Amino acid sequence: MASLDTLTLPLDPTSAADLAASGLEYERVDADGEGFRPFQRAVARGFLGGESTDDEAENARKTLRTRRLTAVYDRRGVEPAVPVGTIDSWASELTTSPGRVAPLWSISAVTVAATHRRRGIARAMIGGELRTAAAAGFAIAGLTVTEATIYGRWGFSPAAWASDVQIDTGRARWTGPTAPGRLDFVPREAVVDRVAAVHERVRIQRPGSVPGWDGRWRGIAGLAPGDKSGEKVRAVAYRGADGDETGILVYTIDERDDFSAHELEVRALFAVDAEASAALWRFAIEHDLVGRVKAWLQPAVPPVQWMVADRRAVTATLTDHHWLRILDVPGALGSRRYAGALDVVLRVADPLGFAEGTWRLRVGADGEAVVTRADESEASEVELTVGALSSLLLGGVRSTELAHAGLVRAGADVLVSVDRAFTPEATPLLDIWY
Ligand SMILES: CC(C)(COP(=O)(O)OP(=O)(O)OC[C@H]1O[C@@H](n2cnc3c(N)ncnc32)[C@H](O)[C@@H]1OP(=O)(O)O)[C@@H](O)C(=O)NCCC(=O)NCCS
Predict the structure, then answer these.
(1) Confidence of residue 232 (pLDDT cuts 50, 70, 90)
(2) Considering only CA atoms, which of 129, 19, 114 is closest in space to residue 70?
(3) Whose CB has fewer CB within 10 Å in the chain, the N or C terminal residue?
(4) Annotation says 151 is catalytic
(5) 147 is in an annotated binding site
(6) pLDDT in tens, 12-42
C-alpha cells in the first residue's frame, strides 16, 4: 500500500551523497518557510517565467503546500538561498481502467539553473524521487514533459497521447447530434467548483487521467493573479434533461481585425457523456463572429471530427503527453482490468533495477491479473525494457507497434495475445498538464 503522506518521507541518501560529492546540498523545502520564495523563483526562472509578485507567490503556495518540495543548493553562489535545482512531487492517482485507480507518484517543477546544467543535478533529483517513491510503495511514477528527450533515460515513456485541435468554423458545419438539455453561462467565481465536479466524474472513467486540484481550476477560470486574459474568461455549463450538470466549457475569445474571424480558445471542455460533449462543441463551433476554435489536450482522434460535415476543418496535432514509469511490475500490471485471458512470461530490462526481472502475467477470463516473479530459468516469451512496458500499461499503444520499432521482442502470436488482452476499455488520455 502506497504511503499517501509523502511530506514526511525522508530525503534519499544516495542523491544526498552524490550531490554532496560535488559540493551541493540536497534539502526539503517547507512551503510555509522562508525557503519557499527562493524555491519558487528558481522554478519560474527554470521555466523562463518572470519574477512573481507576492500575490502570485501566495497563489502558488496554496498548491505547493500539499507537495513535497526538494531543492539543491550551491552555497558558494551569489544567492546561496536560491536553489540551483528544484523538483516537486505528490501522491496522486492514475485511472488505469474505467472506475479503477492506482496510486501515482507525480513529479513536476524539475528545473536546474542554466549556470549548473549538465552536471548530474537532474539525475540526482529524479533518481531520488524514484527511490523514494518505490520505497513508499508506489508502483508507478508519472510526469508531463517539456521535451521528449529528457526522461527516457530514467525509464519513463509515453502512455497516453493528446491532440491539439484547431477548427475552421467556416468549413466545419455541425452535423452531430442535437443535445436535448440546456446551456447556461455561469459566473467566473462559480467555475472552479463546477469544473472540479465535472472533471472528477470524467477522469475516473478515463485511463491515463489524474485528478485536478484547486489551483489548476483557478488558473483555468482566469482567477490566478497575474492572468492577463483572466477578465475575458467565460464559461457555459450543460445540464441534461434530468437537470444533472454533465459538462462545462471554459473559454476566451481573442479578437482579430476581421470581425467575423475571432478565435475561441478552449481553456477546458469536460463532458461526462457524448450528449454534453456534443452540446459544448456545437456551442464553440457555432459561436457568432468566431472563425477558429482552438483546444488543447483532446483525444488523439477528437470526437468532434465525427460531428462536422468537413472533418478536415478539424486538424489535430498529436503529442505524447502522459509519461509513466513502472516501479513495481506486479503492482502496476495488477492495477488494471484486461480485455481477455492471458498467460505470458515477460523479461523486463531496467537499468535502475526497480522493474528488472522475469515476471509471469496471468489474466483470468474475468480480466483480473495476477503477476508473480518467475523463476529466472523460465523461458521468457516477451522481452522488453521498462519504458516499453510503461507505454503498454494502459493499452495506449500496441505491443505489435513497439515490436516493429525493435522495443519489444516476442513471437507474432504472443504479440497478438498481448494486444488482445491489453486493449483498453477507453483510449488513454490525460486532459490536464501537471
Ligand atoms: C532538463 C533539465 C532539468 C536537465 O537538468 P541537468 O541537471 O542539466 O541534467 P543532468 O546533468 O542531470 O543530465 C542527465 C542526463 O540527461 C541529459 N539531458 C539533460 N537535459 C537534457 C535535455 N534537455 N535533452 C536531452 N538530454 C538531456 C544529459 O545530457 C545527461 O545525459 P547522460 O547521462 O547521457 O550524460 C534542465 O536542463 C532544465 O532545467 N531545463 C529547463 C526546464 C525544463 O525543461 N525542465 C523539465 C521539465 S519537464
Answers:
(1) very high
(2) 129
(3) N
(4) yes
(5) yes
(6) 999 999 999 999 999 999 999 999 999 999 9
